[in-house]
Amino acid sequence: MYRGQGTTPRQCASMRVRSPWVMLAAGCMMLGGVLAVADALDGVLQVRSAFVDLDHSVFQLHARIDYPMTPAISDALRDGVDLIFDVDARVERARRFWFDSTVVDLTLRRELAYHTVSDRYVVRDTATGDQQTFATLDAALQYLGTVDGWPILVGPQLEAGARYVISVRAGIRRGHLSSSLRALLFWTDDWSRVSDWYTWSLTT
Amino acid sequence: MVTDNLTPRRRPWGTWALGLLWAVIGTSALLLLAKSVQHSSDFGRLQPWILLLNVIGVIGLTALIARKIWQLVSDFRANVPGSRLTARTVSTFGALVIAPLLVVYLFSLDFLNRGIDSWFRIEVKQGLNDAMLLSRAAIDVRMREYGSRTEDFAAALASVPHEELIRRLNEELRATDASEIVLFDSDQHVTAFSSDNPLEVAPAAPPRDVLRQIGQHRPYVGIDPQVGGQYLIRVAAPLSESGDSADRRYVYAVYEVPQQLAKLSERVQQTYSQYGDLAALREPLKNSFRLTLTLVLLLAMLAAIYGAIQSAQRLVRPVQDLIAGTRAVGKGDFGTRLPLPSRDELGYLVHSFNDMTKRLRRAREEAWRSQEAVERERGRLAVILARLSTGVLAVDRELTVRMANEAAGQIMGVDLAQATGSSLPQLAAGKERFSQFVAALVVRFAAGREEWREQIDLDGGSDRRALMCACTPLVVEGGERGYIIVFDDITALLQAQRDAAWGEVARRLAHEIKNPLTPIQLSAERMRRKLTANMGREDAELLRRSTDTIVQQVETMKQMVNAFSEYARAPDMKITSFSLNELVAEVVELYRSSGSRVQIRMDLDPRLGIIEADRGRVRQILNNLLVNALEALEGYDSRAIVDISTRLLQTEDAEWADPYVTSKPRGTGLGLAIVKKIVEEHGGRIDAENRPEGGAIVRVTLPLRDSTRAAHSHRASGVRPAARKESLG
For tag attachment on chain A, is the N or C end more exposed, with fewer CB atoms within 10 Å? Predict the structure, then answer.
């Protein structure tokens, strides 16, 4: 089992090199009052825990994610809005005198929708097409927040003696938007949010 | 602004750099936006960058406009040429652009609000809700039907022996629309099952919802949408109705909703979902459109204002250049060259201006050359005038000195080097000779005489001067008329003429008188010698006295003739070097030892060394002066010095040295005349004047070196004092 070494998501985020321009842009956005609409995805969005274990030379990711549960989300789902839940996993090889190299960059993408006719919440894996239905939103979010045995890496991809950094983050955004609508909603679309990176080191 | 380059004005590199930066920012924002809308997963990552680029663009544009407006206001307050025209042009352009923009903006906002609201009509929403409820009701009927049948079947199955279970399940499967019927025991083990799929060897475990419901010993009926639009109705029913029963078995049946119903329900579901999706975008869409419109309006307004300012400045800049160029030309900078703004009318105007300044510069250069030539000529003339021994004086009608050469000052005995611009009467104040000269000029100008040539005699006490003046009108600077007076000191010339005339008279007189004197003297002596013996004593005595008188007077006349001869004798200078002090002491000692009661006092300057002169003639000067002084003192005591001076200078002041001018009863009047003649032959100068306390001063000035004698001898005036002998009578 390869677990994170006591780093909180916030600390990990501060460790990551964040462009000050992004922060400046966010500040300008707030100062300019361009986005006056409240964040519909407000609430806790974080990777609570994550680790990988090795099973027959396959590194499997296990993560627990807290997704926000707000009336806005529930109402939007019941009104027919689909939500995309992404889990991004990234493995980078740390290099001393150069930028880190990316070994793996994967996304586990699932779609949550409310089926009005059956009064059930449907979670669909966009890659495989498999879907699960749930009677409640809590059950669906709990299912989405549990990632078990997601194979992200195989042993031959790693070099002996090297240090690797595994990062995991979760994101929510509105699904099924056409390009034109997304362009139109550029200024006011608050249905998009990502968590901080949850990062830990892996030494082979 | 002012340059020598006549090519059209080029934009500064900063403008090109800003434009390039603007284009890069805009293109980058567009590319990022395109990428984000194509790959929705990148939207969250790219949105801040897109916002940043846009914010940078807006801030940059705002900063540019603010800078332009600030510059415009500053220029307006400072009354910079062209600023008012720029402000007026910007205001006009701005008003012309902003007003239609605002109108379009307001109409567009209203149109958008109404248009988007019309998309989500309440009737549509209601219809969709009704369709959804209808679908749900239809499926509910099926669910209740399948639930009831399954419960009945479970109740019937409770008493069926184990061997009959599979058969009953198969019969039930065939009798209903179920796709699968499974009998689970209390441990969730499959007791028996029947499926319409012959390949299925084991049934799938029921979902958690089913297990949770059955765990509470209650039947379960639920619908489960499947991939592809199919619906499954899952029903679970315990075999015994009592929860306390030991039989915890239950029947789990899966029914497929009829295809037609499922298809219609799925279509209703999709439509409802799409409508809901769009309806959720209603306010965000409106806000987005409002924001986009507002941003477009702001950008358009800012761009319009910036464009108006740029256009106005570009339009006014040539005018400003022309104003600045005109001012520069007004200040005398004819090298001003304005850059050509374009090939239009303004360019033609600027080209004409440049052509004009070019011609002006050429004209000024020619004027400079002419002025330099005039200055050179004036310099030459000044050198010539300075070298002239003739005085030249230029005055205007108010007798203000415009020009005076060095000789004029020397003749007048004043310094006229700094007299330019001064009033001639003021310069002459306190200077007797110069005042007389100015007075003579004033008299003639007052009489309206502007062109004349006359001799003006100046009476400066002992120093009388005769000037030959010529006056002619002249146009002086500024077109004002004035006079130029040329005058020459002809005192020496007149004196020389006079001396020459006297010399000629003396020579002829001596020649004419000397010839008969000897026969007269011989005749008188013969007459006395021949007749004395034959005459009586008294007659003889009378004859002797008469002849003695004749002889004595003849002798006196001979001396007089010799003196005249001496005066008329041509100069025969024998220049030697000797000590003047020694010569003076030698002569004075001679007269001191003669027994005269007159006391002679010497005051010699020991610094006076060797001079070059004719020693014999200088001795003659000293002798004559001392004899004159001693003779003048004859019969007077030491207190009668005043009388001596009166006798010495009782004649006209300037004529005391003329021949035959004497106040002594037996004087020939040639002593001082000879002194003066010898002095002038040495190139020196002699003058005399009475002293206020009595007595007189005779001042003899001789050149130290013989080389300067010739140069000085022709100029009676302006001789630099070299040796001075003062004789107190």
Answer: N
